Amino acid sequence: MSDIFISQAGYRPDSVKKAVMPFPAESFEIVGIDGSVRAAGSTVYAGADKNSGDVLYTADFSDFSEKGTFRIRAGNLTSEPFEIGESVYEKALDCTSKAFYYLRCGCGLLEKYAGRFRHSVCHRSRGLLWENRDISLEISGGWHDAGDYGRYVTPGACALAHLLYGYILFPDAFNRQKLNIPESGGVLPDILAECRYELDWLLKMQREDGAVYHKVTSAHHAPFIMPEEDRSQMFVFPVSSSATADLAAVCALGSRVYRQFDEDYSARLLEAAQRAFEWLEKNPGFIGFNNPPGCATGVYGECCDDDNRFWAAAELLSA
Fold this sequence. Notes:
Layout: E1 18-21, E2 27-32, E3 37-42, E4 44-48, E5 55-60, E6 68-74, E7 77-78, E8 82-84, H1 90-102, H2 111-114, E9 127-129, E10 132-137, E11 151-152, H3 153-169, H4 171-175, H5 190-204, E12 215-217, E13 235-236, H6 241-258, H7 263-282, H8 306-318
Helix pairs in contact: 3-5, 3-6, 5-6, 6-7, 6-8, 7-8
């Protein structure tokens, strides 16, 4: 690994391009993959980095717009290769988009889609209400959380929102994707098919009165095992106003996005959003969430729900 730091994703021809060197260097060169010098320039002293203790110099080559694969050379060191091109960010976007497929819960990941990350069907048992264990709910599906096999409404809604807003703002960037998921080649763009997998689970978390359960987890995090090996009892935890507002917001947003592809599904999402918001209006006080005694999984607690309610209202107005 080189001591010259560059963008591993690459650079667009018209973007700012800088390399950072944690050693003194007065000049730098841009060299092609064949070793030929394509451009040269002077470095700039950037000062000391407080966290690493390094004295830094930067090489700004923003004016260099030739497309291809290059390296930065300074002193006796040469950087790792990097690319300059219009599509340098496509791989990063596609990899991060495909990452959500690997988080799917309640199904098996086949080798043809998941490669070495394949695994068998997981977490298909019904969840028991934490406060009344005589009641069970079908809560399979959705995405595993960041570090455990639980599924949480508020962070799930946040992840969905980023993806759906991204699709609204940059549809062409997502429409070109071929993520190799089971739904690829269908009516929906792959990213929206993936989002629907999480949205369908969110809908299962809504009560008849519109309120939304905060999370589905076991009582304690599973050990470091494959998902199909986790056979702990899953519990459905009490509603929170934050979860209810977040579902209202993201379902209203989803209704707007999916309308051009599936009017029935769009209407279903909007109806769920409206029921959630009606419950919020009937329950104007903040209903937070804290783990009850005996539970030690994620909390995702908040001190108020003003922003959640505002987001829900804004999205329902837009829907």
